[in-house]
Design goal:
It is a single chain. By secondary structure, the chain is an all-alpha fold. It is globular. Helix 2 packs parallel to helix 6. It has 9 helices and no strands. The N and C termini lie far apart (about 40 Å).
Length: about 190
Amino acid sequence: MSLLELIAAADERGLAAGAAACLERCLPQPAPGDEPDPLRPLWAGCADPRLWPARLAEARAALDSVAGPLADPGEPVGRVRDLLAGAPDDRAGEALRVWADACSVLALELHLGHDATGPAAADRVARCRAGDLSGAGPLLAGEVARQVRILEMLAGIDDAAPAGAGLRQVLDVSTEGQRVLRAAAARRARVRR
């Protein structure tokens, strides 16, 4: 299945966890002394929909304290903050699917921006989400594969499993992706100097 099909078929836990993982991968390396993962509270809300509103509020506050009031809305932290602000307070319904889809797009756009495959084609992210990886560089293709893997892992969890089942594995996959993007961003910064 393509990434678009997996998002369309995902249940609410899959959408919430997939979106949280995408946003987490978009955040830059924290400054010394900062909270290593301001989105960590969101994971409890992925496991239990009753906790979602409170954990979403905690994650918003944590990201605001890390980013500061002057975070550039065009930069990754500003874009994550905007998406987090637009997250539905109720972890259900079509609003959650639309939000998860936007989080997926942001993560793919950031990976495309760090790929060394030439200028970013406007339709490359859309084609990759539909399953056509032609012309995708390694970072973009890797992020598509990561998102697909996460959604497939969550879809494969039995309904009778505990609410948090699979979230540790999703977090591990996301952390690996975070390291890859941060390394690419650091290489790119060194090349620009």
